Amino acid sequence: MSDTVISSLSQEKQQPLDAAVDHPAPDKHSSPAVLPLCWGHRGASATFPENTLCSFEAAIKDGAEGIESDVHISSDDVVLMFHDPSLERTTDGDGKIACLPYLGGIDAIRTLKAPHQKIPTFDETMDMLMLKENQHVVFNIDCKPNNDPERLFKLIKASIERFEDHSSLLSPRLILGLWHPKFLEPSTRLLPSLRKAYIGNSPSMAKKYFWDTCEGFSMKFSCLVGWEGLAFREDCKRAGKSLLVWTVNDRQEMIEACKWGVDAILTDKTADYLTLRQEMKDDWSAVTAETSALFPYSSIHYNGLVSWFWGKLDSYSLSRSWGPFHPMTTQ
């Protein structure tokens, strides 16, 4: 990772989440001065069991500058790195995490996908990040909306503060990914040193509820292709907001995201994107010629009206399940 990227992680939390990867000034056959960072979505999850230490470590070994993972809380107050609220899809266990103890329960469960792994705790993940060889890695914590914000952030705070030098070596590298505005006030109050990023697929909801309080925006790729997404991308650039895009596993989508100039690409295929990024650095013109101006019309999912509809539907579902959306109020 370049010195520019490393130094950006030490900036005040009002600064963009991260700088992209620096390269020499381009000529007509080379890439722009920056290309998006590579963040492993649940680690290198195309190859290894998602949200496990081996998946995180594999992404870092590939060369990823960041990792994204999800959190849930067990019945005995252990924060776990896991995507679903229930265990069945990816492990040999069953039941809801919130209803099960970690000690004497979830700790014995293993992933269905080989190599079979235990579900890592947040503490274990922070321990991994604090290893000297991993102290350049950014970690995006996807705070699922079914969590209780107060309970979650108090547990995260306690875990981080186990490290004497957390304020300089750990906290600047952690990002709270938030789906619901009910997380904004507790995160600001309990974890003021951690930066925040909206996660979702609705640019209009991002602007209405999260714009003034989040340093970055982690958006579904398809919602950034159409007319609303284009306007949002331009707004982020003008305001100096970081723009992250997920989950980008298709080569053409990776190329498009690089053309947009996003700050980071979240992908299950970290090795594939890093290989592509090098290709783009070596011959920008040849690689970008693989996609054309017709790309936005290549899938119904990229249609502006379709993306707008799904964004509204998802926001409605979130508000129905986890409470109405209200802007964060300042005292």
Automatic annotation (TrEMBL):
A biological process from GO: lipid metabolic process
Region described as Disordered: 1-28
Domain GP-PDE: 36-277
Pfam families registered for this protein in UniProt: GDPD
GO MF assignments: phosphoric diester hydrolase activity
Compositionally biased region (Polar residues): 1-14
Segment forming the signal sequence: none
InterPro entries named in the record: GP_PDE_dom (IPR030395), PLC-like_Pdiesterase_TIM-brl (IPR017946)
UniProt xrefs under SUPFAM superfamilies: PLC-like phosphodiesterases
CDD domains named among the record's database cross-references: GDPD_YPL206cp_fungi
The protein's name: GP-PDE domain-containing protein
Originating species: Puccinia coronata f. sp. avenae
